Amino acid sequence: MTMIFGIPIQAFMGQILIGLINGSFYALLSLGLAVIFGLLRVINFAHGAQYMLGAFVALLALNWLGINYWFALILAPLVVGAFGALVERTMLSRLYQLDHLYGLLFTFGLALTLEGTMRWYFGASGQPYAAPAALTGAVNLGFMVLPIYRGWVILASLIVCLAVWALIEKTRLGATLRAATENPTLVQSFGINVPMLLTLTYALGAGLAAIAGVLAAPIYQVSPLMGSNIIIVVFAVVVVGGMGSIMGAIVTGYLLGVAEGLTKVFYPEASNIVIFVIMAIVLILRPAGLFGKEA
Amino acid sequence: MSTLLNVAGLNAWYGESHVLHGVNMQVNEGETVCILGRNGMGKTTTLRSIMGIVRKRTGQITFAGQDVLAMPLHRTARAGLGFVPEERGIFATLSVDENLMLPPVVAPGGMTLDEIYSLFPNLRERRNSPGTKLSGGEQQMLAMARILRTGARCLLLDEPTEGLAPVIIDAIGAVLRELKARGMTVVLVEQNFRFASRVADRFYVMDHGVMTHEFPVGELNARMDMLHETLGV
Ligand SMILES: Nc1ncnc2c1ncn2[C@@H]1O[C@H](COP(=O)(O)OP(=O)(O)OP(=O)(O)O)[C@@H](O)[C@H]1O
Ligand SMILES: [Mg+2]
Q1: What tens digit of pLDDT does each residue of B6-23 get?
Q2: Tell me: the pLDDT tens digits for A180-195?
Q3: Of B29, B78, B38, B74, which is closest to residue B53 (Cα–Cα)?
Q4: For residue B46, what are the contacts with CB-CB under 8 A and spacing of at least 6?
Q5: Across residues A46-75, what is the average pLDDT?
Q6: Measured between beta carbons, which residues in chain B are less than 8 angstroms from residue A176?
Q7: How far apart are CA B138 and CA B146, in angstroms?
Q8: What is the pLDDT of residue B33?
Q9: Is the CB of residue B177 less than 8 Å from the CB of residue B201?
Q10: Which residue from A176, A193, A195 is facing B102, i.e. has the nearest CB?
Q11: Distance from Cα B191 to the centre of ligand 2, integer Å
Q12: CDD domains this protein is in (chain B) (predicted)?
């Protein structure tokens, strides 16, 4: 058997793969957080709940309406994004003039409310969601066996992350978003409806969380608390990457996922805390994060 | 000549601090009007209040027959007002071109990119560099150019010559005369008296949040004593 660092290559690659899959979710979720924070200056504690809602939209759409995975992948971000827009317009937007702490508290309360409501209706246990037939099975790569669905998650996450990056860095709408991040008042004085832009940005962030939720449903099952488990790690990812940096959020997401996977190989006891250890080290050496600009 | 911008009894506040105390000002179509005044007298606040950036206001502001005071900030530009701030407001994360294309076109009749680049040749060479890599003079030109693209009828221009070399100031003067020839209306805030006398048709003098004097450029020499006294120049 081929060995790498004294470990069978199968096990090694398997953990890297698990790391990349976790990293795909970290990247998608921290990207949404970074997009929202960049423009709204709100730390969106409801992000995990929006991820959970995305998974539930897929599950309920299937169970109630017979809507398949592929449509759910489009439907869930639209539904959760629209819900996000409604929340921003009617509630969150009233808090912008106040201390940023209020936005954080509000979204935290929103997360608890959403999770509590879903738990009351659907119970706390996880419900399985089958991967679409086209993505079941596995391919043998020679050095390892790759479950097709997991490969798809990595690919889909990469595509979505790069698309959002291109939207923000390469398009005119993105230039408007970047300008509004720097000086919203001046941008609004040019005749651009900045309040609307804020609503759409929050909807975009929530929609990204929902896409992650649908991608996660066949892997982790669908449960009301699935978001609160992952979001703590995602906040650590965002701290390491640096708040508000789009590319930073994406790259850090994948890197830390892989770091977590590798720790499982070499020192399994530490794998649950390695991201937090990295966060602590980054906070000491580079408080603005790896990709953040020093204030 | 018809009045394009009419400001009457304008009061404005920053929080509790009352800064404008009943400003009256009329600007006619095609005119270049200059507001003079010492530091901290409320010149910038007047422009920001007209534009709607300062929100706590009472009084009247009408532009082209529309009540501007009641509009949300993103509507004033659509009514035809364009604001070039004192600090220029060039965006660091945007290239020169992105800065230029940022404000949406609000009316036909704005300058084309070719016209803008022939008026500001420096900008063409630096199209792809980040906005803040520009010199102070180039930033001022970019701040003006991006509003000229939009088709705004009236330019609110806050101290365009501040901190710039004489040759750049001359270039900005030439741009303002070109704009006047095209029929643009300009409200200019200026401390550079000599510059203002070359481009303005009419002057207002501002003191502690009110307009204390108003006179056409022809009376400038006759008003010198008053100006030296109120402006301390
Ligand atoms: N954001 C603000 N908050 C509170 N007070 C302000 C603010 N901006 C200006 N002021 C105050 O309002 C008054 C008028 O300021 P303004 O900037 O309009 O003066 P100005 O005539 O443009 O001066 P300058 O020639 O220095 O630009 C000043 O007393 C200033 O201290
Ligand atoms: Mg000023």
Answers
A1: 999 999 999 999 999 999
A2: 999 999 999 999 999 9
A3: B74
A4: B7, B10, B12, B20, B23, B25, B35, B189, B206
A5: 96
A6: 102
A7: 12
A8: 97
A9: no
A10: A176
A11: 9
A12: ABC_TM1139_LivF_branched (cd03224)
Count of other CB atoms within 10 angstroms of residue A112: 14
Chain B residues within an 8 Å CB radius of A188: 73-74
Say if residue B84's pLDDT is above 60. yes
Beta bridge partners of A8: A3
DSSP result, B92-111? TTSBHHHHHH-SPP-STTPP
Q: Chain A closest CA to B218's CA: distance in Å?
A: 34
Pair of tokens at residue B233: 């120049």
Q: Rounded to 5 degrees, what are φ and ψ at A128?
A: -70, 150
Q: Is A281 on the interface with B (CB under 8 A)?
A: no
Q: What is the CA radius of gyration of chain A?
A: 19
End-to-end CA distance of chain B: 33
pTM confidence score: 0.90
| pLDDT for position A176 | 96
Amino acid at the residue A93: S
User: A88: which 2 tokens?
Assistant: 């921003």
**Model ipTM over 0.90:** yes
Tokens of A132: 């679409």
Closest to B111 measured CA to CA, from B71, B157, B147 = B147
Mean pLDDT, to the nearest integer, of A64-68?
94
Record the tokens describing residue B186, joined without a space.
């300009």
Structure tokens at B211: 């307009």
| Ligand 1 atom 3: residue of nearest CA | B14
pLDDT attached to residue B180: 93
CA pair distance B54, B43, nearest whole angstrom: 13
Q: For ligand 1, atom 30, which residue shows the shortest CA distance?
A: B40
Write out the two tokens for B197. Answer: 């006398």
B145 close to B122: Cβ distance less than 8 angstroms = no
Q: Domain spans of chain B?
A: 30-55+72-231
B30-55+72-231 folds as Rossmann fold (3.40.50)
Q: Name all residues whose Cβ lies below 6 A of ligand 1.
A: B 14, 17, 19, 37, 39-45, 86
Mean of per-residue pLDDT scores for chain B: 93
Q: Do A189 and B73 touch (CB under 8 A)?
A: yes
